Amino acid sequence: MSDVKTTTIAIDAMGGDFGPEVTLAGAAITLERRPDTRFVLFGDETAIEKVLDGHPALRKASVVHHCEMSIAMDAKPSQALRQGRQRSSMWKAIEAVKTGEAQVSVSAGNTGALMAMAKFCLRTMAEIERPAIAAIWPTLRGESIVLDVGATIGADAQQLIDFSMMGGAMARALFGLERPTVGLLNIGVEEVKGQDEVREAGRLLKESNLEHIQYHGFVEGDDLGKGTVDVVVTEGFTGNVALKTAEGTAKQIGAYLREAMSRTILAKLGYILAKGAFDRLRDKMDPRKVNGGVFLGLNGIVIKSHGGADAEGFAAALDLAHAMARHELMDKIAADLQSFHDRMGSEPTRQEAESGSASA
Amino acid sequence: MSDVKTTTIAIDAMGGDFGPEVTLAGAAITLERRPDTRFVLFGDETAIEKVLDGHPALRKASVVHHCEMSIAMDAKPSQALRQGRQRSSMWKAIEAVKTGEAQVSVSAGNTGALMAMAKFCLRTMAEIERPAIAAIWPTLRGESIVLDVGATIGADAQQLIDFSMMGGAMARALFGLERPTVGLLNIGVEEVKGQDEVREAGRLLKESNLEHIQYHGFVEGDDLGKGTVDVVVTEGFTGNVALKTAEGTAKQIGAYLREAMSRTILAKLGYILAKGAFDRLRDKMDPRKVNGGVFLGLNGIVIKSHGGADAEGFAAALDLAHAMARHELMDKIAADLQSFHDRMGSEPTRQEAESGSASA
C-alpha cells in the first residue's frame, strides 16, 4: 500500500445470502469507483481466494484473514454471540474496527446477531444509552437520514435527543451540511400531539438550540418522502414499520405500473418509446442504491447491508462505509455530544445523575 | 320515502375545507350510484338550500336540519366539545345515529373534534376500552383494513385484540368474507420479535382460535402493500405513521414518474401513446377512492372523510358509510365480541375483573 491516505473497510465476506461471491464482487465495484479503498476480508480463506482469482485488482487492495466459522442468517443473536464471539467472520470484521486495522466494518449478515456482536465488541459510547440504526431515505429533495429503523423498541426523550445528534452528525458527514435540519416523527405537527417522549424531546431540542443541528419541529409520515428535513428521528418500532411500508408501497406501485404498461398494444408501444424514462425511474427507485443501515452510538462504525443484496447493492453499502470513514463520522458525533452537554450547562449528564456525582 | 328498505346517512354538511358545496355534490354522486340512500343534512339551512337548488334529486332524498354553528377545521377537541355540543352540525350529525334517525354519520371536519364528540355522544361499547380508526388500504390483492390509524396512541394486548375483532367484523361487512385473516403489525415475523403487548396479543389470538377471524401471525410494513392479510392491527401512532408514509411514498413516485415522462421528446410521445395505461394507473393510485376512516368501538358508526376531499372523494366516504350500514357492521362487531368472551370461557372480562365481580 502506498503512502497516500487510504480508507480501510473490514468486510464479513461470508455474510448475506450469497457469501464471498457477492461481497467480493461488491468490493471490486467500490474499488473501481474509490481506488483509495483498502479491504480486510474475513471468512473462509479457500472460498475467498477462489473468488479473488477473478478480481486481481481487489486482491492487490486486500488482506485476507481466515475465520473458521460464519454466522447463519437465521441464528439468534444470543446464540450467534455465544458461538461466534472471537472467531466468526462477523465478529472479526467488527473487531478490526476496535483494533484500528479498519475504520469501518460492513456485513450483510443477520441484523440481530450483528447488532449484538457490535454492542458487545465495541460498546456504546459513554454518553449514549442505546444504539440506533440509521437508514438513507430517498426523497423528492434528494436524500434524508432516518433513525432508528429497528435497533431498539421504544425510546425516551433523552434517547430521541441522542438520535437527533447522531443523525445530525451523520448528515454533516454524508451530505456535507453545516447545520442539518432535524425533525421528530409524530402524528401531527402541533406541539400538543403525540407521545409524551416525543413532545418532551421536542421541547428540549427547541430550548437547547444546538450548534450543529437545526431543530425543525414535528414531521409526519408523508414528510419522509417529501424530504422536509435532513434527519427524521423516531424510535425503532415506528421507524422500522415506516421503512418497510415505504419499500412495500414502492414495490406495489412498480407492480401496478408494469401491469398497466403491458395491458394494451398502445401502452406497450408507449413503453418502448419511453424506455429511457422508465429506466431512469427504475434507477431512481432502485433500493440497491440506498443499501446500508449505519449502526450509530457505538465506539466504531458498523454498517449492515441487506442480506439479499447483489454485488451492486453490497457496493452501495461499501460506498456508504467509505463516506462515513472519510468524513470522520465518529469525531463529528463526539463533537456534537460535547456541544450538547456544554450547552445544557450545569445539568448533570444522565450517568452522572445516576451515580450521584454531578459536576458542573 | 317509499317502503323499500333504505339506508340513511347523516351528513355534517359544513365539515371539510369546502363545506356544503362539496359535501352535497358528493351526496348527489352517491345517490346516483346507490338510489336507496336517504340523507339527513346538518348545517346552515340557507347555505344548504342554495346548493340543493342545483341538485333536485338530492333534495328529494334529503331532510335538512338547520344548525346555528359549525366546528372550525383547526378547533381543539376540548374547545369544539365545549362550544359545539348539542348545537353544531358535527354534533347533530353524530346524534342522529344515537337517536336512530340515521344509521351512520359522515363528516369531513377535523378528526380530533369528531372523535371527541363521537365518544361523548355515542360512548364506547361496553366491552371496548378505546375506539380505533380503521382505514381501507389498497393492496396488490385488492383492499385490506388497517387499524388503528390514529385514534389512540399505544395499546395493550387486550386493546389489540379488540381492534382485531372490530377490524375483522368490518372486513366481514365490507368484503363479504366469512373469516377474514388478521395480522399484527410488528418488526419481524418471529414470535420473539417486537413489543411485549404485540407478542402477548399474538399469543392470545392464537390460543383463542376465534370463530370469525383467522389469526395469521405477525406481519411487517411491506405486507401492507402486498395485502398479506385482510386486516392489519397496530396501535394508533405506528398506524398513523405507516398510513402517511405510504401516501407520501405514492406521491413521491408519482412525481418521479411525471418528471421522467416529460424529460425527452420520446418519453412524451410514449406518454401520449400509453395515456390510457397511465390513466388506469392514476385511477388505481387515486387516494380519493379509499377516502374514509371508520370510527370503531362506539355505539354507532361515524366516518371521517379527508378534510380536503373533493365531491368524488366525499362520495367515496359516503359509499363506505352506505356499505357499513347495509351490512350491519354494528351487529357483526357485537357478535364477534360475544364469541370472543364465550370462548375465553371462565376468564372474567376486564370490567368484571376491575370491579371485582367476576361471574362465569
From TrEMBL, chains A, B:
The keyword Cytoplasm applies. Its EC number is 2.3.1.274. It holds the Pfam family FA_synthesis. One of its GO terms (molecular function) is phosphate:acyl-[acyl carrier protein] acyltransferase activity. The keyword Lyase does not apply. Transmembrane segments: none annotated. InterPro entries: FA_synthesis, Phospholipid_synth_PlsX-like. NCBIfam families: plsX. Catalyzes the reversible formation of acyl-phosphate (acyl-PO(4)) from acyl-[acyl-carrier-protein] (acyl-ACP). This enzyme utilizes acyl-ACP as fatty acyl donor, but not acyl-CoA. PANTHER family: FATTY ACID/PHOSPHOLIPID SYNTHESIS PROTEIN PLSX, PHOSPHATE ACYLTRANSFERASE. This is Phosphate acyltransferase.
